[in-house]
């Protein structure tokens, strides 16, 4: 198995400092299933290439393998030459420091995006070149994926399930290595070892900063964890918490579907020029929701805002960064959520001007609280669906009857949109007590508005599907 990493940052030989592997030496590392070699076929100030060559020992692999296998599977397989979870394991062992983003001698360079080109000559790729593009392009890579023919001498036999993959872009080396580490076994859709619960920790750690926002994160998570349902649900819940998006934790991930060409002039998947331009990363639903809330608050000229059920404080962070909002407060019933919000906001290290504009406290929305008073607007963003239905009237009385801000903004999942999430059964998040259709949400909002002297209008959040509506529905109450 072979993986090469090339950079043209000057001096390019600083790649050796980032990988903690000297360009003038060949280094060898024993693995439980073979031997990994690191060497530099090209090392000049203008261009430097590091290669990781994994020599798999079939006997050691058979002894180390913990997963059930066919009787001949350990002898008749592609592992000795095709990039797979074996190569990912070798990367984690050999490039451990680089994957952490640490560098004793080039710390600033380790934290800086640099031009990179990564090549895998033989990559098992379930779904073909299109699958590789779907996984790498949203991360900012320019992708070239060429199918490997079964036999160049007999083109009529067609292509194998392998591709030669080259990805190019400007990323931090640590981000690039972690992305390849996760996506290698995802594209192969196979792992050489037993999937234990600690695999969730490995996935979350390697996916930090990119996986939660990836449009294919559901499929990536399922494949990485070999479809172990309990582990998958745990990982998706942790990703949702990390990105403050519980309703969007399960996506529709059509990576195994046949590509549909809407443009008859579009390049075929095997075209050498296909995928050379990186697609713009999609805007996550969580970000679109926050931006819509901020737009509504500005349009309503709400300068003092309280975030009720603030969770980890993502909206609070954005409110605090914007000097338009003179005072912001966050309240949540969970002490743990408040601790996370405090860390996110760095509440103990805020400049005095920001510290004076912020208030954080623990409180339940089912009980009247004087600290809820005096705000232009209250926001309940993805909150009401976490409240038991019999307790909703208490929340209504507290927010609309007692606190009575001039504006109340409520967002909640649109249950009709759930059919767009492949493999989703039940609610989008295990803590949801209910999820409403648009008609159900409108009925509730209309009743509450009439009972407490408000008017309400409805705003779609996310792409407004012509059949099932947007993924998130918003009610803006004004009095």
Automatic annotation (TrEMBL):
E.C. code: 2.1.1.386
Domain of life: Bacteria
InterPro entries: 3'-RNA_MeTfrase_Hen1_bac, Hen1, Hen1_N, Hen1_N_sf, Methyltransf_12, SAM-dependent_MTases_sf
Keyword Transcription: no
SUPFAM superfamilies cross-referenced by the UniProt entry: S-adenosyl-L-methionine-dependent methyltransferases
Residue ranges, annotated region (Disordered): 243-282
Pfam families the record matches: Hen1_L (PF12623), Methyltransf_12 (PF08242)
Coiled-coil region(s): none
The Hen1 N-terminal domain, residue ranges: 1-240
Basic and acidic residues composition-biased segments: 243-253
TM ranges: none
Cofactor: Mg(2+)
Keyword Cell division attributed: no
Residue ranges annotated for the Methyltransferase type domain, each copy included: 306-391
UniProtKB keywords: Magnesium, Metal-binding, Methyltransferase, RNA-binding, RNA-mediated gene silencing, S-adenosyl-L-methionine, Transferase
Catalytic activity annotation: small RNA 3'-end nucleotide + S-adenosyl-L-methionine = small RNA 3'-end 2'-O-methylnucleotide + S-adenosyl-L-homocysteine + H(+)
Family classification: Belongs to the methyltransferase superfamily. HEN1 family.
UniProt protein name: Small RNA 2'-O-methyltransferase
Native source species: Actinoallomurus spadix
């Amino acid at each position: 198995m072979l993986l090469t990493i090339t950079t043209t940052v000057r001096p390019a030989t600083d790649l050796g400092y980032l990988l903690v592997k000297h360009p003038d030496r060949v280094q060898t590392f024993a693995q439980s299933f073979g031997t990994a070699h690191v060497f530099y076929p090209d090392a000049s100030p203008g261009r430097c290439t590091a290669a990781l060559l994994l020599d798999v020992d079939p006997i050691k692999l058979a002894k180390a393998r913990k997963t059930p296998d066919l009787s001949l599977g350990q002898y008749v397989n592609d592992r000795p030459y095709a990039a797979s979870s074996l190569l990912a394991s070798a990367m984690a062992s050999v490039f451990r420091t680089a994957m952490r983003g640490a560098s004793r001698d080039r710390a600033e360079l380790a934290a800086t995006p640099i031009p990179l080109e990564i090549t895998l000559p033989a990559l098992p790729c379930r779904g073909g070149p299109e699958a590789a593009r779907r996984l790498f392009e949203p991360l900012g890579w320019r992708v070239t994926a060429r199918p490997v023919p079964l036999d160049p001498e007999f083109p009529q036999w067609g292509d194998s399930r392998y591709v030669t993959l080259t990805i190019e872009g400007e990323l931090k080396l640590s981000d690039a290595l972690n992305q390849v580490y996760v996506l290698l076994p995802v594209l192969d859709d196979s792992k050489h070892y037993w999937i234990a619960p600690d695999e969730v920790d490995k996935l979350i750690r390697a996916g930090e900063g990119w996986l939660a926002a990836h449009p294919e994160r559901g499929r990536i998570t399922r494949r990485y964890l070999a479809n172990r349902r309990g582990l998958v649900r745990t990982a998706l819940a942790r990703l949702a918490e990390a990105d403050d998006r519980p309703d969007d934790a399960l996506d529709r991930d059509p990576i195994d579907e046949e590509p549909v060409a809407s443009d008859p002039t579009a390049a075929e998947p095997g075209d050498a020029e296909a995928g050379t331009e990186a697609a713009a990363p999609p805007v996550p639903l969580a970000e679109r929701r926050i931006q819509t809330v901020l737009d509504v608050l500005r349009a309503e000229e709400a300068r003092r805002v309280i975030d009720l059920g603030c969770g980890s404080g993502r909206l609070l962070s954005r409110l605090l960064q914007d000097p338009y909002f003179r005072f912001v407060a966050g309240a949540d019933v969970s002490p743990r959520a408040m601790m996370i919000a405090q860390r996110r906001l760095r509440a103990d290290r805020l400049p005095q001007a920001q510290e004076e504009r912020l208030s954080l406290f623990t409180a339940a929305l089912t009980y009247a609280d004087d600290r809820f008073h005096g705000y232009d607007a209250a926001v309940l963003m993805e909150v009401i669906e976490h409240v038991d239905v019999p307790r909703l009237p208490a929340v209504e009385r507290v927010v609309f009857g007692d606190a009575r801000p001039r504006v109340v903004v409520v967002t909640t999942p649109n249950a009709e949109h759930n059919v767009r999430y492949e493999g989703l059964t039940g609610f989008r998040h295990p803590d949801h007590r209910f999820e409403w259709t648009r008609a159900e949400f409108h009925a509730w909002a209309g009743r509450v508005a009439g009972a407490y002297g408000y008017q309400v209008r409805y705003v779609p959040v996310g792409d407004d599907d012509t059949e099932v509506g947007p993924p998130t529905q918003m009610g803006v109450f004004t009095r």
